[in-house]
Amino acid sequence: MKYRLLHAALLLALAVDARADSLWPPKASFDDGSSLSLMGAAAYDFNRVDGHGYPAGAPLQDNDDWRRSELGVRYSRPGVLDLAATYDFNSDSWLDVGARIETRAMFGRDLGRVRIGQMKTTVGLEGNTASRSIPFMEFSTVTQAFFENRRVGVDWTLERPQFLAVASYFFKSDIDADNDGDTVGARLVWTPRKQEGDVLHLGLSASRETPDSGIARWRAKPELSLTAARLVDSGVIEHVDNIQRQGMEALWQRGPLQLQGEYLRQRTRRQDGFRDYASDGWYAMGSWLLTGESRPYAGANTSNPKPVRDSGAVELLARYSDLDLDADGIAGGREKNFTVGVNWYLTAYLKFVVDYTRVDARRRGQQADPNLLQARAQLHF
After folding, report:
1. Helix (H, G, I), strand (E, B) or coil at 274
2. In terms of residue numbers, what domain contains 242?
3. Could you tell me which InterPro entries the record lists for this protein (predicted)?
């Protein structure tokens, strides 16, 4: 109870002060142009479920709790380097931790940016969207299943007006060392249009992971924020030699309208005479900011819109996702979800989210079709 009251008091205090843009984010600036600032995010969620999971398990229940409680610090010297570290006290885990170095400062010309530390991996547009900026309550089932999440390693990014290229090498799972192994990846994005409120983004990505454990597992939550239940699950796959991921992504933006979609697939290569396993999925989503703003686009991704009215910005959204884990003798199941939502961005740092999801999941002859209603209050800076 004390923990919840502390969260609530912090959220209320920050929400009141968040209207004073000059105070956020908390920052100290120095004579050489560098700065030291705090970063954070606090999100409290409400889940309401009509229906349940499969009869044999995976109960889906009403719940309300903190979804994330992030706090970090960043040192920035524009044009030279950034140092950052963020911790999520809700999940007791480190998020992004590391350094980003501008090659212009070293070589006198822009040869890209180099990052070293723990960061998100290469394959997945939605997965690489900051958690505070995703339009819906949760990532699609497709992203949950196939995105590799954060790893420790190094990546290089070269960005030009009409393209972005990324090459990465990860040599450790994460700081907590949950699943060691190597991953190499690449991503190429073409942006023939990249102006404020006028974006066309087309991309391809691929990676190859070699897990030291020799095991893999593909599964996803039903886009419900406060549950550990999975309605589709390949189960543990052993004798894994390597995992190959591929992705295709597209994003179109015109003023307050945005369309986005991805196709992701994986192939689990097995040894000792065991059959390979491949599965795939896709999602498509659209959003419309009724109040006329556009989602900011930078670094081949989008972020929360900044309201231009005192009453804030209002966004309507819809997403369809289709994840198929039934293949190659493994009955992982198939799930199709349709979500509609509305977001209210009261300020640049405070937003409220409401999502409604209809789930259609089938696995091993069983069916689950719950309806999910969720709401979130989130502060971020």
Report:
1. coil
2. 2-380
3. Porin_dom_sf, Porin_O/P
